[in-house]
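Running log. JK asked me to keep both predictions on one page so they can be read side by side. First protein, sequence followed by its tokens:
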Amino acid sequence: MSTPFTTQMAQRGRDKLEELKQPRRRTPASPPPVLSLALPPVGPQIRPNGQLYQPRLLGGLEDLAFLRDARHHREHVLLVGPPGTGKTALSEAAFVQDAVSGQHSGLETIVGTASTEVADFVGTFVQNPATDAFEWVSGPLLRSIENDVPLLIDEIALIDPRELTVLYALMDGRGELHVTQNPALPPLKVGPNWFVIGACNPEVPGAHLSDALLSRFHHHVEVTTDWDLATDLGVPMDLITVAKNLESRKEQETYEGWIPQLRDALAFAETSRRFGQGFAVAGLLRKCPYQDRGEFAAAMKERFGEHAALSLGTRVPAGRR
């Protein structure tokens, strides 16, 4: 069921899609990127939440077309990168055109944690409060097989590797799942549109993937923030400059701290629009992990001046209530 918010986001996505269809001028210093014709491009897509996804280059291929081709050949894909770079957005946008209203959005998703178990993948028996009877409820892995759609495992590296062995027989060519939790279910065979996309931040504490699982992912892809896209989406150039400088320092091993990514940058732009740049800077400083805030604040100061991290102050004066 749509809400006023999702309806508004969908309209924004459609407006942006129409804007992108208009021809744009490029300066001689910014030649157009080369897109391989090995795979027909999919083009911009509106995600289930109404936001527009603008395709990116991946080794000369369009990223959306690449994911759809990987599904066609059942070549499982592992996406790695910091939070907020667009790993989930890419996965959703690649298959949103296959969505079936009331059934699925083109793929099934599970978000992993340290406590994720096999039952969270396949399903479990749940007691019906009306009848007190226990009824089987399928999990996202079973639903992906039943609907013949891809399975996105977000934060896959946080899941105990022993729980992920449920995927092995499905990913290595056997393509069959035996649900021991429900003996009444027959063995489930995967269809032509099923494959696995894993997404994770390999640097997060506790992240680990077994060699056995890593070898089952045919493609390993790093996902970083597209700052040119951020510019097109209205992110202030000063923030983009700060982020790029910090990325350069990280490559030179002179900085090891936090760097805002596309999600953070878009939130900064929206906050600036509504409450002013000073408020947005203060909020971003507070968002930065405490241990990195000193260095990050110094980098921000060069472009935005002195600001303190966002915090509550004194009570509002009586005359302003």
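And the second, directly underneath as requested:
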Amino acid sequence: MKLSVSGRAMAAGAASVVLLISGGSIAGAASTPSVAAAPDIPVAGVKAHLTQLQSIATANGGNRAHGRPGYKASLDYVKAKLDAAGYTTAIQQFTSSGRTGYNLIADWPGGDTNQVVMAGSHLDSVSSGPGINDNGSGSAAVLETALAVSRAAYQPTKHLRFAWWGAEELGLVGSRYYVNNLSSTNRAKISGYLNFDMIGSPNPGYFVYDDDPAIEKTFKDYYAGLGVATEIETEGDGRSDHAPFKSAGVPVGGLFTGASRTKTAAQVTKWGGTAGQSFDRCYHSSCDTTSNINDTALDRNSDAVAYAVWELSE
């Protein structure tokens, strides 16, 4: 998740496309629940991706930041997994702060391309650490969900698209570039964008975006089925990659487990954990490693990603 405006330098972005992303489409929420069809996402698989991202950061100066070798290596890792699983992948290139950045877009063949359901996460870290919770957690969960689509040979009514954004930490640069370079026709085809940024915080809360009502209800229904209370997400409102989509009129939603804000005693009563401590004490720090993940939160939220993708695309 990017820093607030007061805590970061705004990034400029003159950009060029390496591979122009063809517009997709996705319509409104499904009318019939498909919870039975949604697979259980193995948390071991999600954690295996986090281990790889940690190794990439360790081998590349301790981070996976925009314009650094660790970011491109992270993108190459994700792309190789998707290519092997049968996705049509495309790389979109842009420039920010004098460095080249990349978005990765993956389309699952089939489905009505006039109704596109899209799920995404930012792949870059800050320069001060490997970014395993922020945002390896979201990136790994979206990747494992995409691979689950392939394993299930899922053929939804709507078209599925997955995305990994660059330079989010510099001001949502990659996702904004993607949205701004879609034609108005292709933007209108996106029936929903689901965003996952920090979903494995070590002292977690369970926060749901309160943007599009149908998408919000989908996530709340999932958590109600687990008997887990949720709260509306406010800490990161407008500070992650759903914001450019929302500004363009695309319905958005997502999940979050908390960053630097402090967990209250009332929240501990609901969720456990430690009162008076940040949801993520290693937010934007060098200690945001594979040790900085709550497995239960990561497991629940990864399953929620799949639940929403299946529910909204059938």
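Observation for JK regarding the second prediction: Residues 4-36 have pLDDT under 50 and may be disordered.
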